[in-house]
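FORM 12-B: Structure-to-Sequence Request
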């Protein structure tokens, strides 16, 4: 259909504008006046009709995989239409002993709450799951995060709960036609894209998925005391961590790095805690800006919290078979024995006196007493000695900061040599050296991620911005290693993109954490969803840099062959990126359907991911993509802004459920 391109661009523009409307006018306004409006649905319907005419007129049905690809997209739109017309969604608010409250839905059977409980990660106050025990249609059942319950076509998901844990809020969904049709479209998309990719010699690109896996005054504190104190365990960031982890973050927030002069983080922590008269943050100068004053106030507040002992939850107590961690100034339960209460209240005061008297033997004895107390009350949740040493090693040796400097520097030099060095012999030698260095960088980052996995008990690649940057850097370097011989320009791109990702990770480490996953993220689909998305983003970053270099070379030498060659290099990368992006979006939709009963909610991150998918999909469409290679590269560069908006813009400006 002649005007399909303009309809698609109109839809993309409307979706982009809607995310900003939602930012300023609220979700309900954007949903009612844009996403749920009749004219928005009509535009999608016109686009679908145009696709059907295009298949018929262009005789695409003769190309079976291409035809199946278009059918998959039509199925997804048809499923969305069925959900809109016949799907039911609502809420059920359950309270034990009280009538149920239903919103936007009627249930043909009885449902009642027996109990609601929150399960926690062992030895912490960090929730691992929310569980509702219910009676439904006369039978007992259980609903929890990522574990839905289906009864007579109605699907129940754990949505929320009351502050006193006597109320449970369940989302209810019934969609007998929309979900099966949509899922069929998802599956057909993946199969048809793999068929097309393998048929065109892109097997290696698709196979990439399977390779985954201020100023301070000082006082001297003994290094041995600091090391012993740092090996104690504490509740920090929702997990049982060595005190060294808290000391590291505390020092970072005060000084911008994990050391102060020659003093390590543990020495800084003990200095501020036990020698407050000698350790202080210098006040701002008389002419300081409001921002500088605010920073000083924040640091002072952090130090004051430390002085009253609030963050130091190093004392575990077992009550009713549950372990709770307390600081010396916390209010202790009445059932705590007098001996335990006295120990929690006084032991750090004894340590203070031993430090001031420079009694190293007494200091070591007190640390041992605290360690014995921890083992008596929380032996089953304490990290092993090897795990503590591993974490201290990671805190001391900042591989992320080292690697971002190495990769960015190597990337600049490698790009310069490939672009302008004409001696093939020297260029070949340089490329081999850079390739070896890339393997070393990839190995070091893999080691760092493996160590964090061991420390945190999970793959540290998915929970926050720092971890996704690590994944992006790892995948980018992997792409450079695997496909370097086919696309030499991937080598500098791998350095530059991974270096930028590691730089962002380094900046995020100014406020680092390795927290347990929140309940909704405790799903096996998490790794597949995030990995697919990050592979796509890294491939699209390759294409943007390739287009940028090709454009610069064209302006420099007016060589049309080089810019045409760069276009041919970009197309397989874009194809693979669209495959992984679409797969990641669809896995995320299935996950959302399992977690809270709907596969698409027009969240800003979802919307911008769809925009990115459509923009790059147009570049693969002969009728939509610019035929002139110069214009093609300009569009590649412009389209990459949608990737930046999807990841950074949503996270730091638009917000939403996916912002982190």
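FORM 12-B RESPONSE
SEQUENCE OUT:
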């Amino acid at each position: 259909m002649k005007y399909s391109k303009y309809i698609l661009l109109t839809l993309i523009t409307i979706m982009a504008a809607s995310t900003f409307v939602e930012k300023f006018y609220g979700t309900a306004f954007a949903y009612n006046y844009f996403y749920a409006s009749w004219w928005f649905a009509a535009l999608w319907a016109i686009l679908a009709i145009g696709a059907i005419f295009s298949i018929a007129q262009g005789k695409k049905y003769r190309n079976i995989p291409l035809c199946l690809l278009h059918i998959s997209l039509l199925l997804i739109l048809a499923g969305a239409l069925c959900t809109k017309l016949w799907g039911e969604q609502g809420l059920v608010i359950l309270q034990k002993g009280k009538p149920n409250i239903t919103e936007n839905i009627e249930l043909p059977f009885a449902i009642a709450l027996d109990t609601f409980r929150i399960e926690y990660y062992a030895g912490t106050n960090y929730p691992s799951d929310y569980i509702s025990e219910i009676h439904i249609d006369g039978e007992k059942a259980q609903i929890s995060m990522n574990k839905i319950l289906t009864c007579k076509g109605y699907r129940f998901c754990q949505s929320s709960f009351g502050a006193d844990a006597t109320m449970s809020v369940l989302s209810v969904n019934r969609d007998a036609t929309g979900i099966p049709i949509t899922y069929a479209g998802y599956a057909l998309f993946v199969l048809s894209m793999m068929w097309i990719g393998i048929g065109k010699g892109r097997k290696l690109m698709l196979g990439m998925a399977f390779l985954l896996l201020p100023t301070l005054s000082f006082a001297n504190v003994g290094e041995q005391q600091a090391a012993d104190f740092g090996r104690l365990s504490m509740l920090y960031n929702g997990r049982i961590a060595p005190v060294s982890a808290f000391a590291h973050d505390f020092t970072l927030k005060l000084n911008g790095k994990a050391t102060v002069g020659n003093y390590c983080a543990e020495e800084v922590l003990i200095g501020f805690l036990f020698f407050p008269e000698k350790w202080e943050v210098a006040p701002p100068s008389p002419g300081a800006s409001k921002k500088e004053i605010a920073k000083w106030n924040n640091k002072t507040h952090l130090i004051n919290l430390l002085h009253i002992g609030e963050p130091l939850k190093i004392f575990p107590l077992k009550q009713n078979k549950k372990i709770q961690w307390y600081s010396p100034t916390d209010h202790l339960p009445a059932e705590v024995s007098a001996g335990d209460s006295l120990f929690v209240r006084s032991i750090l005061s004894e340590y203070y006196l031993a430090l001031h008297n420079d009694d190293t033997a007494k200091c070591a004895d007190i640390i041992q007493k605290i360690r014995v107390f921890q083992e008596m009350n929380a032996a089953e949740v304490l990290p092993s000695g090897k795990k503590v040493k591993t974490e201290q090693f990671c805190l001391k040796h900042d591989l992320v900061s080292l690697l971002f400097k190495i990769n960015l520097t190597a990337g600049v030099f490698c790009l310069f040599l490939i672009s302008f060095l004409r001696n093939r012999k020297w260029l070949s030698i340089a490329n081999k050296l850079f390739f070896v260095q890339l393997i070393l960088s990839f190995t070091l980052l893999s080691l760092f991620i493996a160590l964090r996995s061991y420390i945190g008990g999970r793959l540290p690649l998915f929970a926050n911005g720092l971890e996704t940057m690590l994944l992006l850097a790892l995948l980018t370097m992997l792409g450079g290693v695997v496909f370097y011989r086919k696309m030499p320009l991937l080598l500098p791109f791998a350095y530059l993109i991974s270096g930028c990702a590691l730089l962002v990770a380094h900046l995020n480490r100014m406020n680092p954490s390795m927290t347990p996953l929140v309940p909704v993220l405790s799903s096996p689909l998490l790794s597949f969803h995030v990995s697919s998305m990050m592979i796509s983003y890294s491939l699209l970053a390759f294409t943007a840099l390739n287009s940028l270099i090709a454009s610069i070379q064209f302006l420099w030498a007016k060589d049309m062959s080089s810019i045409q060659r760069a276009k041919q290099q970009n197309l397989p990368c874009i194809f693979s990126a669209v495959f992984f992006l679409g797969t990641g979006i669809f896995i995320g939709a299935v996950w959302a359907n399992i977690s809270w009963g709907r596969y698409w909610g027009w969240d800003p991150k979802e919307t911008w991911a769809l925009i990115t998918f459509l923009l790059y999909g147009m570049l693969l469409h002969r009728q939509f993509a610019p035929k002139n290679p110069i214009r093609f590269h300009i569009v590649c560069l412009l389209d990459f802004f949608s990737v930046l908006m999807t990841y950074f813009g949503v996270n730091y400006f638009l917000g939403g459920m996916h912002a982190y």
